[in-house]
Amino acid sequence: MSKGCCGDNLPSPTLGETGTICYCNHITAQEIVKTVKETGVTTISGIKEHLRNEVISNCSEFNPTGECCHKSFDAVIKHAMVRQ
Question: What pLDDT, on the 0 to 100 scale, is given for residue 45?
């Protein structure tokens, strides 16, 4: 899995319970919340590996914003942890 897609100066994400968060792996906010609640897994890589057999990372091609999903992904994880 490539880790070079994320930048440190990305804007803060807008958090929603629905919609695609990771376009590379077609992971929704709802799937992330469900995984955190049901498994206790709270890392991006752990959640991706739990949900998908093959994990890819190519945000510049798949994400409509051209940006890395990690800030949005982390925001959904934190939101799910608060709601546990």
Answer: 97
pLDDT value at 3 more than 70 = no
Q: How confident is the model at residue 18 (pLDDT cuts 50, 70, 90)?
A: low
What is d(CA 51, CA 79) in angstroms, rounded to the nearest whole number? 18
The residue ranges of every structural domain in the chain are: 20-82
**How far, in Å, are 1, 8, 9 from residue 55 at the CA level?**
7, 22, 24
> How far apart, in Å, do the first and last CA atoms of the chain sit?
29
Q: How many H-runs (helices) and E-runs (strands) does the chain carry?
A: 4, 2
Please give the torsion angle defined by the CA atoms of residues 61, 65, 71 and 56, in that order, rounded to the nearest 10 degrees: -20
What value does the mean pLDDT take over residues 9-28?
A: 71
